[in-house]
Amino acid sequence: MPEDKPDQKTASPPPAAGEKPAAAAAPPKPAAPAKPAGPTPQPWESEMVSRLRNRYGSGIDPKTYLGQNYIVADPSIVYELLQVLRDDEQFDYCVDVTAVHYPQRKDQEFDIVWILYSFEHNQRVRVKAMIKDGDPAPSVVALWSSANWLERECYDMFGIRFEGHPDLRRILLPDGWKGYPLRKEYGITQQDSEWVKINLGIESGQ
Q1: What predicted TM-score, i.e. pTM, was given to this entire model?
Q2: Quick one: DSSP state of residue 138?
Q3: If I label 126, which of 17, 20, 147, 184 is the partner at 20 to 30 A Cα–Cα?
């Protein structure tokens, strides 16, 4: 009777002395789950918005985002809109005037943002207008005197001029400072070093 022989196709020789057996191939990693879509701005509807739509039509685009209500306004009507919000809608406090720089957005590089609050209704609203670099924004100092220093800070940090401001000049940085630090392309270390060396006669610590 013939002897049973191991299957030559499937049998593997034992590892040599001191040799580690070959490791099994690791199973492929599962694909990372897709990131869920984030929240997006939604249309904002209210009685006040209806009144403003009747007055300005497509000149305004009211939105709400995570509970924050805002109105994107055409620059040509934004001053009148702000005045209406103060006089007719009781937004009697200007919380802030600031800007956001979008250098990749050609011809509308800046959002000017007015943040308003109504003590009467305990309500906050933001008004935004998109402007081109070099174009002025309307000063609202005549509407809210608190906007005086806020507009000066926005000018100091972004270089945005507010047409009609009574005394538009730097408020945080020295008068001889070059550039505007909150623009995206601004090189803070280089400018700081230059000013410190020229005006203080020392090397900057940055």
Answers
A1: 0.77
A2: E
A3: 184
